[in-house]
Structure formats: structure tokens, C-alpha cells
């Protein structure tokens, strides 16, 4: 086994925090020179210090840079607000177009529903008329006196015809037995 003296020390994790920038970091220095791979000597000399003392010349230069950065920020804010206003207007026009399309669709749907309901009412009316016609053609549940009398005569006539037909058969069959 390895002793404590021969043990390899664990590697230290890389810090995720970037070191603080100087408080008086100028806008001109914050542009491409920081992002470039060549180190700027002026920045390297000051990079170790977070708080710098401002001399008179640097103060005038700093005010000019601050004015420039403020005007840049103001221009950026104006551009952002203009872009947001244009986006809002585009969004509102799209919403209005969608609402108009939805209204057109709703009007069409209501018209189709109305047409369907009218067609359904016509069909029901036709069915009722057909049922009414069928009920009119049926005879009533109670027969009139004349209809009852006619029915009795008809039944009597049917019985007489059957009776005559039966009498004929009987007479024919009896006549054939007598002839034998």
C-alpha cells in the first residue's frame, strides 16, 4: 500500500468564477481588445487592480467615455423599444386577422346549423303529413249503422254461396252414389 507521503494529491477543480473587472473599466477598452487573443498591455497592467484612482486627465476622458456609453445605451434602448413596438403591432394585426377568420368561420357554421335545422323540420313535417294521410285513409274504430248492415248482408251472402256450394257437392255426391 502507498503511504501518505507517496500519495498523489487530488487535482483541484477549476474555479468557475471570473475575477472581478476594474470598477472604472472604460467602454473603449471593453470592445474588441478584450475579446482578441493578443493581450493589451494597458489592460494587463491594470487587470490586477479592481479599484483604480482616477487622475484629472483620466477623469475628463472617463466622462467623455461615459457620455458616449450613455448615448450608446440610450440608442440601444430606443432601438429595443422601436423593435418591441413593431413586434406588438405585428402581433396585434395577426390577432385581428385570426379573429376575423374565426368570425367568418362562426358565421358559416351558424348558417350550416340553421340549414340543417330547417331541413330537419321539413323532414318531420313530411313524416307527420304522411302519418296524418295514413290515419285519414283508415276506417274509424266504430262502424256506422249502414256499414254494419252492409257487412251483415255481405256475410249472409257469403254463407249462402258456401251453403249452395256445399249443397251442390252433396247433391252431386249423392247423385253419383245413386247412379252406381
Report Rg: 57 Å
Largest sheet: none
Low-confidence blocks of residues = none
Termini separation comes to 145 Å
Number of helices: 4
Helical content class: over 70%
Specify the structural class: mainly alpha
Q: In percent, how much strand structure appears in the residues?
A: under 5%
The average pLDDT is 76
Number of strands: 0
Q: Helix-strand pattern, N to C? A: HHHH
Rough outline: elongated
Write the SSE topology.
Layout lengths: L31 H4 L5 H7 L8 H82 L7 H35 L1
Summarize the structure in short.
With 180 residues, the chain is mainly α. The protein has helices at residues 32-35, 41-47, 56-137, 145-179. The chain has a domain at 54-138 and 147-175.
Amino acid at each position: 500500500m502507498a503511504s501518505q507521503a507517496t500519495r498523489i494529491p487530488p487535482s483541484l477543480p477549476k474555479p468557475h468564477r471570473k475575477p472581478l473587472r476594474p470598477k472604472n473599466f472604460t467602454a473603449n477598452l471593453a470592445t474588441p481588445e478584450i475579446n482578441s487573443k493578443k493581450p493589451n498591455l494597458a489592460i494587463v497592467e491594470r487587470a490586477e487592480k479592481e479599484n483604480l484612482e482616477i487622475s484629472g486627465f483620466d477623469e475628463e476622458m472617463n466622462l467623455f467615455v461615459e457620455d458616449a456609453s450613455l448615448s450608446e445605451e440610450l440608442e440601444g434602448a430606443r432601438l429595443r423599444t422601436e423593435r418591441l413596438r413593431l413586434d406588438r403591432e405585428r402581433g396585434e394585426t395577426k390577432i385581428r386577422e385570426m379573429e376575423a377568420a374565426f368570425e367568418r368561420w362562426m358565421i358559416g357554421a351558424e348558417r350550416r346549423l340553421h340549414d340543417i335545422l330547417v331541413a330537419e323540420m321539413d323532414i318531420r313535417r313530411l313524416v307527420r303529413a304522411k302519418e296524418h294521410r295514413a290515419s285519414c285513409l283508415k276506417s274509424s274504430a266504430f262502424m256506422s249503422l249502414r256499414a254494419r248492415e252492409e257487412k251483415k248482408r255481405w256475410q249472409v251472402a257469403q254463407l249462402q254461396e258456401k251453403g249452395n256450394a256445399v249443397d251442390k257437392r252433396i247433391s252431386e255426391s249423392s247423385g253419383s252414389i245413386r247412379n252406381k
